[in-house]
Amino acid sequence: MKQRKKLNRLVFWYAIVAVLLLFALFPIYWMFITSFKTFQDIYLIFPKLWPGKIEWKNYLEIFTRYNYGIALKNSIKVSLGVSILSILSAIFSAYCVIRLKFRGRKSIPQFVLFSYLIPRTILFIPVYILVYRLGLGNTTWGLLLVYPTITIPYATWVLITYFQSFPFDIEEAAWVDGASRLQTLFRIILPISLPSVIATFIFSFTLCWSEYIYALVMINTKAQKTITLALSDMLVADIIPWGPLMAGAVVAALPAMIIYTLASRYIVSGLSLGAVKE
Question: Which of 24, 93, 148, 275 has the smallest number of CB atoms closer than 10 Å to its CB?
Fold first, then answer.
């Protein structure tokens, strides 16, 4: 009797999980198959769950008609540049806050988190004026200047939290062996902290990759637009080209999916286990 109740409970929870997964994954599936549909299949009264004929025309159209290749290159440039800058800044900032002794250092994590919580809309006008006075308006370099104001506070706060839990015994042992602070940071702390660093890098990359508001305010020429702006440019008046739009969405989602897939084992692995021997 108890085993039957346990089995019924498992079936119930698995059914709930299956329904939730269906709600979460079906829009992705629909986006994917719609990107291969013909115009006629898209506008059928009773849509098909699988395209009657697979067409690559939508993918060709986004690169030939909508300049998607340029937007893709701009997004990669901005996202990688900002992510690298954010990680380097966050590593040094977090280490200084945790290990160096100076007045007010205990309040810095709270101020860092508070700066991340400030609404972006408040900063639109001052940031816009600053970027254009520096001569970086309507360029991807302007985005490289603006996006770190979003990513660096979060990355610093995450690494501060992680470095706080890092065993100080390891650093002391390295100092006894003659290592400097920089050598300890790059040869001991960072290799052990790799999962946290990678997770922070991925967050910074995906945040820049999907950012729309600042790009919309700063960029207005096709040669400088990012992938989110290229997607929105497909929406003209009341006519929505669902085929190219879904193809563009698939291409936009691929880099994040690939990065998460390749880096997942580093994120979930506990590389710090066994670092300190008792």
Answer: 24
